[in-house]
Specification:
Order of helices and strands: HHHH
Strand content: under 5%
Number of strands: 0
Distance between the termini: 33 Å
Structural class: mainly alpha
Number of domains: 1
Shape: extended
């Protein structure tokens, strides 16, 4: 038997509405959608997780992909995969 944990999530009305639209469009429940998103997130490298949690530099003209590549290169150079 799979042991499960319950996590509460607080969304404002607009965020909840957007989540409902995405789950309807994808033909999945909000719980399934969020579970898959969390599973994807925890499997990412630390540099990508940091980018998502901290956002990207606002004063830069480079694209998100360029910023992520830069962070990955820096992490690799330091030995922090």
């Amino acid at each position: 038997m799979v042991k499960r944990c319950i996590v509460r999530l607080h969304l404002d009305a607009d965020e909840h509405y957007s989540l409902e639209l995405i789950s309807e469009r994808r033909g999945t429940t909000k719980v399934q959608l969020l579970s898959r998103l969390i599973l994807w997130f925890v499997k990412q490298r630390e540099a990508i997780q940091n980018s998502i949690l901290q956002g990207t530099r606002q004063n830069s003209d480079s694209s998100l992909s360029e910023q992520l590549l830069e962070q990955l290169a820096s992490a690799h150079a330091l030995g922090n995969n």
